[in-house]
Specification:
Layout (H helix, E strand, L loop, with lengths): L4 H13 L1 H9 L18 H17 L10 E5 L5 H10 L2 E6 L2 H13 L6 E5 L12 E7 L8 H11 E14 L10 H7 L7 H10 L2 E8 L1 H22 L5 H19 L3 E10 L1
Parallel strand pairs: 1-2, 1-4, 2-3, 4-5
Antiparallel strand pairs: 5-7, 6-7
Helix pairs in contact: 3-4, 9-10
């Protein structure tokens, strides 16, 4: 039996509000972008690679029929610390609403946004992407990076995205996924257990679900090698940072995270996982 949307929401909110998680993502991951990066070198800085993912996704929108500019209204679901929102607001002058479950991350997002002088273009809202607090057809773009995996009802998330997007609007996102046609789902049990999930989505799930909702596929770009590289780099940096994390992040959390990161790397290298940039347009 799958968990209810409410239970999944509570798990994600509790995790990302914890001092351990906040310390880890701020200090090791960089505290701006907390998603998978695009690496040009295997030893590249995590923050640089993570920001490259944001820019790659933004370029897709630049090249879309409606473009990306001062009139664009963007909804970032699972916005984390708001790094993508600030990039879109600063470089494209887009208006962005950040929707995120973690109050700790939202507070940091709001503070960083004010420091950047972008509060007139970015709004930060506590809430769930399974029940988006917005009117129908109110956004030109829905954006998400490595967040939908935490949903208890991913089909409901897609339906909510379809509801709030204008016709012709873009849904651009990334998500860590299980490989289509995975013969032995138990191979991912260590990953499911750490995240308190029973499954991950797949490219096929998103293609089929979004097609049913009237979306057209603009791009699906598999980049699973980047997933393996990213989690390996995060593991390396976490191990290196361990002495200065003492007193900020618990030893037990660090141990669990190092083990979990290794499972992600193993799963990607074994062909059990996928990661991709996906762009769909609402009909």
């Amino acid at each position: 039996m799958s968990r209810s949307a409410g239970a999944a929401r509570a798990v994600a909110e509790s995790y990302y509000d914890s001092p351990d998680a906040d310390g880890f993502y701020r200090i090791v991951w960089g505290g701006e972008d907390i998603h998978i990066g695009l690496y040009q070198r295997e030893d590249e800085d995590i923050a640089t690679a993570s920001r490259r993912t944001v820019e790659r996704m933004a370029l897709l929108l630049d090249e879309s029929p409606h473009g990306l500019g001062p009139q664009t209204r963007v909804l970032d679901i699972g916005a984390g610390y708001g790094g993508a929102a600030r990039h879109l607001a600063a470089t494209r002058r887009a208006h962005v609403k950040c929707l995120n479950l973690s109050r700790v991350e939202n507070e940091r997002n709001a503070a960083l946004t004010e420091e950047a002088g972008l509060s007139d273009r970015i709004a930060v809202r506590h809430g769930s992407f399974e029940d988006i607090p917005a009117e129908a057809a109110s956004f030109d773009v829905v954006w998400s990076q490595d967040a939908i995996l935490h949903a208890g009802d991913r089909a409901r998330v897609l339906a909510e995205v379809a509801r709030v997007l204008k016709p012709g609007g873009s849904f651009v996102f990334t998500d860590p996924m299980q490989a289509d046609g995975l013969d032995d789902p138990s191979a991912l049990e260590p990953i499911y257990a750490r995240l308190q999930l029973q499954s991950l989505a797949s490219i096929g799930f998103y293609r089929e679900g979004l097609a049913r909702l009237g979306f057209e596929e603009a791009l699906v770009l598999p980049l699973t090698g980047q997933l393996a590289c990213h989690y390996r780099r995060v593991g390396e940096e976490l191990a290196r940072a361990r002495p200065r994390l003492r007193g900020r992040v618990s030893e037990a959390y660090i141990d669990r995270m190092l083990t979990g990161l290794a499972h992600w790397v193993e799963g990607a290298r074994a062909g059990h996982l996928e990661w991709a940039i996906l762009h769909f347009v609402r009909g």
